[in-house]
Amino acid sequence: SSAASDVYKRQSPARGHLYPLLGTALGLQDRGHNVHIRTLAPEVDRVRALGLPAEPIAPEVEARELDDWRGSNQMQVLELAMRTFGDRALLEVDDMQEAIEESAADVLLVDTNSWGAQAVAEASGLPWATFQPYFTALPAPGVPPFGPGLPRSTNLFGRARDALMSKVIFSKMSQYAMPSINATRTRLGLEPLGNYVELLQRPPRVFYFTVEELEYPREHWPESFRLVGPTRWELPAEAPEWMADIDRPIALVTLSTERQSDRDLIDTALQTLPQQGFFVVATTAAYAPEEFGGSANSNYRVERFVPHGPIIDRADVVICHGGMGITQRALAAGVPVVVVPFGRDQLDVARRVEYAGAGVRLLPKDLNEDTLAAAVQETRSMKGGAARIAGAFASAGSDAAIVEGVEELLSETAVSRPAAVVAGA
Fold first, then answer.
1. Could you tell me which residues are beta bridge partners of residue 302?
2. CA 351, CA 362: separation in Å to the nearest integer?
3. Is 144 in contact with 169 (CB distance < 8 Å)?
4. How far is residue 46's CA from residue 48's CA, in Å, rounded to a whole number?
5. What is the pLDDT of residues 365-393, one digit of tens each?
6. The model's pTM
């Protein structure tokens, strides 16, 4: 469709879900569409500075912070995360309805974690899609169950294990999620869903931010799924001045933007990697840099935030918690990754990186100076695997593929005027 429209984008309260969406928003705007974004209040001015209309999500939604870091095991972490999304879902309905009305939206692009906003999108009768910036939990034969980070198995025993564990995990996910999901659906006059898998398959389109080369093989993907690779846009940034003085290989070490118990990763890296000949650049995100005993010396630099692009361009290796954003950003540049997964989807990210031969998985319980040094040395030999993934990402289309997918939705509903695209991120 060459006609422009109004597009609304709504994001779950997570910075890691905002920035992957901005390249798409700018691409839609360049094609003449009117894009309206709802996101975290502290990010609104930053989005507006790019020339994109933005408003904050309701403060009560933002106030319900993700507290899964309090869980002492993977099932507790899963429960806390699902209860967070469920609590937010009940608060999202009025906020989403108001945003659609204010923007006169023609099409909606909703964060996969915004369950209430998805229900509003479905009830609105407008074309809509979700975007999923982490590995999908959607089960399939031959694919290990979401969450525990199990290796892929092709024998009968492994298949039976996966089927049993998938049943248990999805039963728990449905137990935690469906009361809130169906409460929002009932309020909006929609039929209730039977389980969490039905929710994942509900959107007419799912823009899935990875490629098959970094996925486990599946016999087929649902017709709604579009594998578009990681979005490539990032804030323009110059390399920090202090980088000009670094004459050693660089190791970038990062923590999650959403607080979790991952600070040991930086502590261990600062003790270990300078002895291996690296200069360490560490970004602490949810932690204050002062907690790590000094922000800079001749061996390292510790910052809360620093643009990753210029660092990755010079890095030999990236050591991270396994967030999908930083992991795929490194691989897109052909830089292999050491993944130390602390929870959430990170165990699955670590396994897929390992499966693709693009990096090394190191569990937190095994993290110490010796194991980290060994993992980094092994990872540096995997540049070929990282380069293969980088090539697949480059071919996937990324932001352009999502723009085309949104316009495909519009063409199916015969929107013939400038479209309002409403997105939440």
1. 282
2. 10
3. no
4. 5
5. 999 999 999 999 999 999 999 999 999 99
6. 0.83
Q: What dihedral angle (degrees, nearest 10) is formed by the CA atoms of 101, 105, 109, 113?
A: 10
As a whole number of angstroms, the distance between CA 344 and CA 364 comes to: 14
Return the exposure string of 308-317: e unless at least 16 CB atoms fall within 10 Å of the residue's CB, then b: beebbebbbb
**Over the Cα atoms of the chain, what is R_g?**
21
420 φ, ψ to 5°?
-95, 115
Extract the tokens encoding 331: 């691989």
CB 424 within 8 A of CB 39: yes
Token digits of residue 104: 């006169």
Q: What Cα–Cα distance (Å) separates residue 125 from each residue in 120, 175, 186?
A: 9, 28, 16
- pLDDT, tens digit, 9 for 90 and up, residues 66-108: 887 787 777 787 888 889 999 999 999 999 999 999 988 899 9
Q: Cα(122)–Cα(118) distance, rounded to whole angstroms?
A: 6
Instruction: Give the tens place of pLDDT for each residue, 254-265.
Output: 988 777 677 889
3-state secondary structure of 226: strand
